[in-house]
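Thread title: Can someone regenerate the structure for this chain?

I was given the following input by a collaborator and told the matching structure tokens would be attached. They weren't. Posting the sequence so someone can regenerate them.
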Amino acid sequence: MLRKAFAPLLPGQTVAVIAPAGPASAEALAAAPAIIEAMDLKERMYPGCFACEDYLAGDDDCRLADLHAAFADQDVAAILCLRGGYGSGRLLDRIDLALIRANPKPLIGFSDITALHALMSNAGLASFHGPMLTSNLIKASDPAAAFGLEFLRHGMPAGTLLQPALGESLVHVPGIAEGRLVGGNLSLVASLIGTPWALDVRDTILVLEDISEAPYRIDRLFLQLRLSGVLQQAAGFLIGHFTSAESPSRVLGEYLAGLGKPVLSGWPLGHDEPNWLLPLGVQARLDADAGAVELLEDVVTAALVGKRV
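Best answer:
Regenerated them for you:
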């Protein structure tokens, strides 16, 4: 169970923007403050957002300092990642978990941010797989911003039922599974295997998505998950967007359909629109028949109970 659920994000509060992975364009950075102000929030952009070291948003020291400072800052109510790309994993062996435990607050991001989600999930901390500032929130066509803000504002208590319109079903296995929601980007989950920061997937609902990976590459990544025991350890699977020129449906079916565990695909999550906010590291019930995920513990406190969306 969560040691402490998050308080609702109130109008006028400050949101930290950090760049633990790749850099953003000057145009995207210029648009960022107005996006957050339109949410009736204040933005505090940390130095790494404006730095660029080739494919990284500043060097490791800079990006690590921003992450630590955002958690330590008592004026910051939530932490929003600027974008993904690459680089979060380079920080794992230097992150001060004691500082994060002492200052719990929502960390929101996806893609390369999966490395940070894994660290936090393994430590018993909640985080949010969801839209990033220059990846989704800058797009007026993506409804994910309003959706995520609604939950952070009004609550995600135990009993919240997530039942969105689903996309294309790549693989489906009926049934119900319970466990912590963990995971994110398939490539990142696979890359952590064999390290001290490998995602603990025992008796979990494993969330997976990826972008622009050909079926043979997805096959290779799932093979790594199977050979390492990850697929066998999970209790069920929640599959988000898999964007590529060729459908990976056959590959996903080959690796997941025969496990005898519930699989729900087409969930609006990952590198496509919409990209719904999903809490990670929290207990949930996956109902593949109903196409729903029910939260079994408070994530964002509120007076509402049994909320359906």
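Confidence is low (pLDDT under 50) at residues 303-309.
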